[in-house]
Amino acid sequence: MNELLTLTAAELGKRIAARQISSEEVTRAHLDRIDDVDGDIRAFLLVNHDGALDTARRIDARIADGEYLGPLAGVPLAVKDLFCAKGLATTASSRMLEGWVPPYDSTIVTRCKDAGMVILGKTNLDEFAMGSSTETSAFGPTHNPWDLERVPGGSGGGSAASLASFQAPLALGTDTGGSIRQPGAVTGTVGIKPTYGSTSRYGVIAMASSLDTPGPCARTVLDAALLHEAIAGHDAMDQTTIDQPTPTVVEAARQADVTGMRVGVVTELAGDGYDPQVEARFHEAVEMLTDAGAEVVEVSCPNFDLALPAYYLIQPAEVSSNLARYDAMRYGLRINDDGEHSAEQVMRATRGAGFGAEAKRRIMLGTYALSAGYYDAYYGSAQKVRTLIQRDFEKAWQTCDVLVSPATPTTAFRLGERTADPMAMYRSDLCTIPANMAGGPAGSFPIGLSGADGMPVGMQVMAPVMADDRVYRVGAALERLLNEKWGAPLLAKVPELRGER
After folding, report:
1. Where is the catalytic site (predicted)?
2. How does the average pLDDT of the chain come out, rounded?
3. Whether 162 is catalytic
4. Which one from 80, 122, 193, 493 is the annotated catalytic residue?
5. For a disulfide at 460, which of 62, 214, 358, 407, Cβ 3.0-4.6 Å?
6. Does residue 23 carry a catalytic annotation?
């Protein structure tokens, strides 16, 4: 494998800026890698081959003229196919938007372009980001690079798999209930959900508007922090964005020191339903933090047990509202548009053909929860639980700087194993949902491999609203401690790199 593929994004940016290597050769190496392995992984829905090389050449020319464009200038980037990118088909992995090409960029794509990043293509996801395995994509599932018979997590499995298979050094994702962190955990990569409102949703296809949070995906903590810094900040086009300075995430990632930090272990995020190997790696990581100077205590957040059922009322309700726009009248798929069928018939046929089973399930759940006579009993009650979860966090912050838990209850499961059991699938997000309900930042960081199946395990770190730097500080410390223990980054253990596939 080309050695350029194994360099971190930070190192690539430094070498490109110093003209030791060119963005064009780095980009070409990643495009060649996509050609070589993505037939097996299926991380990408669209590869921006010519556009990426054109951008790389322009970046090289600007650098040759003496411009400094930032630490990630010239570095390739994979983009989850929820972000609108002008001139590139954006489908949300749904037949409903198959072939749709947006006429504008999302704010975050614009910021990545302004920072000089090179868009490699659009990555696969669960349809409209609804799922925990990337199996609900209308265009087929993505495979986990650690084991091609297993899922890469979801909804952003394509972005995570592109990183773990060394097809991209950086990727964009969105996290509504764990869609960045859960794929990060099961692929051995880093996934960060920033504070809700600290990254713009403008131009990101909406699923659940009070929960959706764009964020960075990477192979190292510093790389994630550099991407986070590039995309975060207030946006006049998104009224939910926070008009405050971005936390010092890059500085925190470079610090990698937990001395004196108070770390709370959430007692509710453990026990029945958790893989013993996941819990074993988690407790080993907690011990490493203790040895590194952190003060570790147990913290009870009793309402976290209610997060999963509350989320699966709030999220489908917002799905029902947001997906109502796909009515076959304005854009996207249109079935039976032959002049012989009424608008109602066209709409019914289009929505029946355009949405997959999981999307339909959540639309129906949400519509029911919002219906007259049931709103207070379901949606209203779920919002009250959300407030209780927020209060659990507020109480925890009185005694702790961060909270930690396993990022997922299990390692990556096999493709097809949970597709017929929605509740088993939903439980994949058991650990990650509380942070979305409260709006605070959280990240998943690799902490080792399961002794049972050899698959990656992740630790989740949660922090108060706009204290994203704490997540990076703990994550960087974990990364340093694990690298010291293993003698190499965890992804050096991917079977292909060891010559086992």
Report:
1. 80 (charge relay system), 155 (charge relay system), 179 (acyl-ester intermediate)
2. 96
3. no
4. 80
5. 407
6. no
